[in-house]
């Protein structure tokens, strides 16, 4: 038999990759560059940005202003050159000194320590952990916290892919592109504990444990800790948890929020951060409350009710969403699948635990905003109007109270001045507002110095910024259009028509339908006349992303792109793809008008217009969100606040008509009405009014001060008292609440005495005594409040409270007490009245902290 010949496979082994890191070429003498690149301080400090640009302007643009990548890519020879360049070295040392001085001034910080939680942060385009307004706001807020020396740390998630990049194809269809972030190329570093170990957290998922690493980003003196689950020890589905911001399904969202809330608190603990106040920016992070309760129970041996007292006192919840459907909620079955393990940690039955996220037992979803509201002493909306809207959205939680009574306040959102203001403006501000500016930006009088600036200086600056924008758009636009193989003739026609002297209007934001980007296009003939007026033309620049799942929003974009290609609109209406921070900056600084046309009251605050006004970009918007507070006559334009039609289509028609009229009759004449020096005096007066009277109110400085005055400081002070002497007050209040809860339903109203007149007719000037007798069943008279509410029917058929009077305990007999008050009617009219009881304690922060109330029928 012939022996079979074969060649045996060799033992090849597996590749064994050993990691080596080649640090960039930066020579030792230029090492400050490396430090500067690792702290986002450079983002809002122009000299630092210039420094990077000088290194290599081309690479700086190519890498989209990412200094870490820049330093990686610059050649050794270029660095050698820079080392010998005295001017460069001097500038570098100057910037570095400024940077170190800034940090030194922030080594020891006073005031309450704040932990801030958010699902997204918009700090710079290179750190793709934001999608839009909410994130930009949080990012601006961290920069401001650093500037204002607030002791704040922040927690979020580090997404591998972040939010998508928007490419449009030839037909205007949005293509979502997700690029993986290489964490070595973005400003994050491993967060280390005190032993120098990389901090990781563990979150329990059904049948397994999720592991997440913690990264750190430095924003001036503020540290942002980012949790990253893309770790080889997790299974694939779990690694996906932090891949996309607002990606995946509702289940993934729950997994993300468990990581952010439960994992976030764990991370802070491992890092040794122990804050006084926990600020939940939107409901996504609401699990922080239950994790803190669990920790307090385990470490301080508090009961659930006591620990909750401590947590509520120190938590603030900011809601951003004006419609109930926008609030995150999870179906109860899925919620239980994931969270079943938790109630045991805090000694609750499942049903009781679930009620933390519900207004009524029969609801089938667990609502994160309800959870946050139930665990926060402070609740606020993000503009005056949105504060009221939030009362309506959350009112089901506070049954027994009328909407208008709810202790839901507001802090209007603002924007970070150094980030959003053009350097050209900063120079003017320094020159006329004083060298100290912007550190004294809260002194609103300082801004009035804008009236001392000569008109031509402002006009020259506006022209320059518009020109810069047009150049930028031409670059960006032609690149994109060539890539997508647009007709070269069309490209050159459109770009040729873009005119740096034409009145330029910007409209850029998320393409959600309520933002009504289509409004302007309701009457295309009329719009064509406006933009093509031969002496007084107008051009519009649009930008914005639609959520990948939002078909209607994507159709809007497509529609605008189609319109922009029609012969009559070429170069007059332009859609620029991939709205990001850099484009936002260029637009807001360069356009003459920023337009916003949301359906009222769906724009909770809006911030982009605020970025505009500090650059002298006039605002033209519906009186919604911040503009309700911002608008002043001769400082921008507004669409009327009141809704004329219930049918949205009619309202849109009317609003579109109003927009065309205002454009034709006011905006265009003001812009093109020139004096003998070709300066539009009226326009400039609007610009000055805007900077003097509108912008100072919409900075993150003002916003931070409001948070301190209205929430951080009062909550800190109360919280200190609640926690003092081994949580003495927390325990007292908790015991009192438990006592009231046990008795409340037994309380019995024995008798109500009112002079007949109340029910019928009373005379002004006469006295009417009112008496209510109650069997308190052992509660003390001062523990039960009795009040008489007087209401008036308003035009909309709703009762509004016109007066609330407290009846005072007069005499007790056994367990009963008689409460009394005398009414002195002083207004004629038809009123209704009702009595109610409420649980009363001098140490409650406000009435709805303990929602024991009973209306007397
Ligand atoms: C400011 C900003 C937003 C938010 O703008 P709104 O006016 O709140 O819609 C969104 N995206 C980017 C890139 C921004 O700079």
TrEMBL record:
GO terms for molecular function: glycogen phosphorylase activity; pyridoxal phosphate binding. The modification N6-(pyridoxal phosphate)lysine is found at residue 611. The keyword 4Fe-4S does not apply. Keywords: Allosteric enzyme, Pyridoxal phosphate. Coiled coil: none annotated. It catalyses: [(1->4)-alpha-D-glucosyl](n) + phosphate = [(1->4)-alpha-D-glucosyl](n-1) + alpha-D-glucose 1-phosphate. GO terms for biological process: carbohydrate metabolic process. Residues 26-127 form the DUF3417 domain. PANTHER family: GLYCOGEN PHOSPHORYLASE (PTHR42655:SF1). NCBIfam families: more_P_ylases (TIGR02094). Belongs to the glycogen phosphorylase family. This is Alpha-glucan phosphorylase. It comes from Draconibacterium orientale. The lineage of its organism: Bacteria, Pseudomonadati, Bacteroidota, Bacteroidia, Marinilabiliales.
């Amino acid at each position: 038999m012939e022996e079979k010949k074969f060649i045996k496979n060799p033992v090849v082994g597996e590749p064994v990759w050993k990691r080596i890191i080649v640090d960039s070429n930066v020579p030792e003498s230029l090492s400050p560059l490396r430090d500067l690149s690792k702290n986002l301080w450079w983002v809002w400090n122009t000299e630092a940005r210039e420094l990077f640009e000088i290194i290599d302007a081309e690479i700086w643009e190519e890498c989209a202003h990412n200094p870490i990548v820049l330093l990686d890519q610059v050649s050794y020879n270029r660095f050698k050159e820079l080392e010998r360049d005295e001017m460069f070295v001097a500038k570098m040392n100057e910037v570095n000194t400024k940077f170190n001085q800034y940090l030194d001034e922030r080594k020891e910080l006073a005031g309450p320590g704040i932990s801030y939680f958010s699902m997204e942060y918009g700090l710079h385009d290179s750190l793709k952990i934001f999608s839009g307004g909410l994130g930009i706001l949080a990012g601006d807020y961290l920069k401001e916290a650093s500037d204002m020396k607030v002791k704040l740390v922040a927690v979020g998630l580090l997404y591998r892919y972040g939010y998508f990049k928007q490419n449009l194809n030839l037909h205007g269809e949005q293509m979502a592109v997700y690029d993986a972030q290489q964490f070595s190329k973005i400003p994050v570093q491993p967060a280390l504990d005190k032993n120098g170990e990389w901090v990781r957290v563990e979150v329990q998922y059904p049948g397994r444990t999720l592991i997440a690493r913690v990264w750190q980003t430095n924003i001036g003196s503020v540290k942002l800790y980012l949790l990253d689950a893309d770790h080889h020890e997790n299974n694939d589905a779990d690694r996906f948890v932090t891949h996309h911001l607002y990606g995946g399904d509702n289940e993934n969202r729950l997994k993300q929020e468990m990581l952010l809330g439960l994992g976030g608190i764990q991370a802070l603990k491992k890092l040794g951060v122990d804050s006084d106040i926990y600020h939940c920016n939107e409901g996504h992070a609401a699990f922080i409350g239950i994790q803190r309760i669990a920790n307090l129970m385990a470490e301080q041996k508090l009961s659930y009710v006591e620990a909750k007292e401590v947590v509520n006192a120190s938590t603030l919840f900011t809601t951003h969403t004006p419609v109930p459907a926008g609030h995150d909620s999870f179906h109860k079955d899925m919620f239980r699948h994931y969270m079943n393990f938790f109630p045991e940690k805090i000694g609750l039955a499942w049903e009781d635990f679930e009620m933390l996220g519900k207004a009524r037992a029969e609801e089938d979803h667990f609502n994160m905003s309800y959870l946050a509201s139930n665990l926060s002493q402070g609740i606020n909306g993000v503009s005056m109007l949105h504060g009221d809207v939030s009362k309506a959205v959350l009112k089901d939680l506070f049954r027994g109270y009328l909407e208008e009574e709810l202790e839901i306040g507001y802090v209007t959102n603002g924007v970070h001045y150094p980030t959003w203001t053009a350097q050209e403006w900063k120079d003017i501000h320094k020159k006329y507002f004083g060298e100290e500016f912007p550190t004294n930006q809260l002194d609103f009088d300082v801004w009035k110095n804008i009236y001392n600036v000569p008109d031509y200086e402002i006009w020259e600056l506006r022209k320059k910024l518009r020109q810069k924008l047009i150049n930028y758009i031409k670059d960006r636009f032609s690149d994109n259009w060539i890539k997508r193989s647009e007709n070269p003739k069309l490209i050159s026609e459109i770009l040729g028509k873009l005119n740096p002297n034409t009145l330029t209007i910007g409209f850029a934001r998320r393409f959600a339908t309520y933002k009504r980007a289509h409004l302007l296009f309701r009457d295309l003939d009329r719009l064509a006349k406006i933009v093509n007026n031969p002496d007084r033309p107008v051009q519009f620049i649009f930008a914005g992303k639609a959520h990948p799942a939002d078909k209607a929003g994507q159709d809007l974009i497509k529609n605008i792109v189609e319109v922009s290609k029609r012969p009559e609109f070429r170069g007059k209406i332009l859609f620029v793809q991939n709205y990001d921070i850099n484009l936002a900056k260029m637009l807001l600084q360069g356009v003459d008008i920023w337009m916003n046309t949301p359906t009222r009251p769906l724009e909770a605050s809006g911030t982009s217009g605020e970025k505009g006004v500090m650059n002298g970009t006039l605002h033209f918007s519906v009186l919604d969100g911040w503009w309700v507070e911002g608008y002043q006559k001769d400082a921008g334009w507004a669409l009327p606040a009141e809704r004329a039609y219930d049918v949205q289509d009619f309202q849109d028609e009317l609003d579109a008509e109003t927009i065309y009229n205002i454009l034709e009759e006011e905006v265009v004449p003001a812009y093109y009405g020139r004096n003998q020096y070709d300066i539009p005096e009226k326009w400039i007066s609007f610009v000055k009014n805007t900077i003097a009277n509108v912008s100072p109110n919409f900075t993150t400085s003002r916003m931070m001060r409001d948070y301190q005055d209205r929430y951080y400081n009062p909550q800190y002070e109360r919280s200190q008292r609640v926690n003092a002497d081994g949580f003495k007050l927390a325990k007292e209040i908790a015991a009192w609440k438990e006592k009231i809860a046990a008795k409340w339903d037994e309380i019995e109203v024995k008798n109500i005495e009112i002079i007949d007149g109340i029910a019928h007719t009373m005379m002004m000037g006469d006295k009417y005594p009112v008496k209510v007798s109650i069997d308190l069943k052992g509660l003390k008279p001062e523990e039960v409040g009795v009040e008489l509410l007087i209401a008036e029917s308003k035009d909309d058929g709703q009762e509004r409270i016109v007066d609330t009077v407290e009846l005072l305990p007069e005499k007790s007999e056994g367990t009963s007490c008689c409460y009394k008050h005398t009414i002195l009617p002083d207004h004629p009219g038809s009123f209704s009245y009702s009595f109610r009881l409420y649980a009363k304690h001098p140490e409650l922060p406000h009435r709805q902290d303990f929602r024991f109330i009973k209306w007397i029928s």
